[in-house]
Amino acid sequence: MEPVTGTAPKVVKSDQEWREQLAPEEYAVLRKAATERPFTGEYNETKTEGVYECRACGAELFSSDTKFESHCGWPSFFDPADSDAVVIREDRSLGMVRKEVLCANCHSHLGHVFEGEGYATPTDQRYCINSIAMKLVPKD
To answer: b/e per residue, 107-128, with b = 16+ CB within 10 A?
Structure first.
């Protein structure tokens, strides 16, 4: 992964340590920026109230209060749980320019953020996040 300008991850592990901690599918998405197939993720249609944490390090990323139905095939949120929960990095892969979303705590790949798509959300942003990159902790 390319380094994120201006921020250092709080959780730092070797590639081997990440491979040992994560299942192969999780490693591919979180550490190698792969993308799960649309409409296949466990949280795509989940309406359970709670907090979504980074599957790699457990940092709080998103609240179910900001999840909305975008019908894009991945869980979508209009805002992170905290302004410091994620960092954004330019992604020029696949012949386009996008904004990659990373966990601020461990710099694992989560997905991408898009703006100006016309969704009726308070931020006009769609954080399009891979289910496999998160773990939902249901509200008590």
So the answer is: bbbbbbbbeeeebebeeebbbb
Q: For residue 44, give the nearest of 117, 121, 99, 111 by alpha carbon.
A: 111
Q: Which helix (H) or strand (E) holds 50?
A: strand 50-54
Separation of alpha carbons 129 and 99, rounded Å: 12
Q: Strand, helix or coil at 64?
A: helix
The pLDDT tens digits for 6-47 are 678 888 899 999 999 999 999 999 999 999 999 999 999 999
Instruction: Tell me the whole-structure pTM to 2 decimals.
Output: 0.91
What residues are annotated to the active site? 128
The answer to whether 41 and 132 are in contact (CB under 8 A) is: yes
Element (H, E) at 114: strand 109-115
Work out the end-to-end distance of the chain between its first and last CA atoms, rounded to an integer number of angstroms.
36
* CATH classification code of 15-138: 2.170.150.20
Segment 73-108, tens digit of pLDDT: 999 999 998 878 999 999 888 788 899 999 999 999
Partner residues linked to 76 by β-bridges: 68, 128
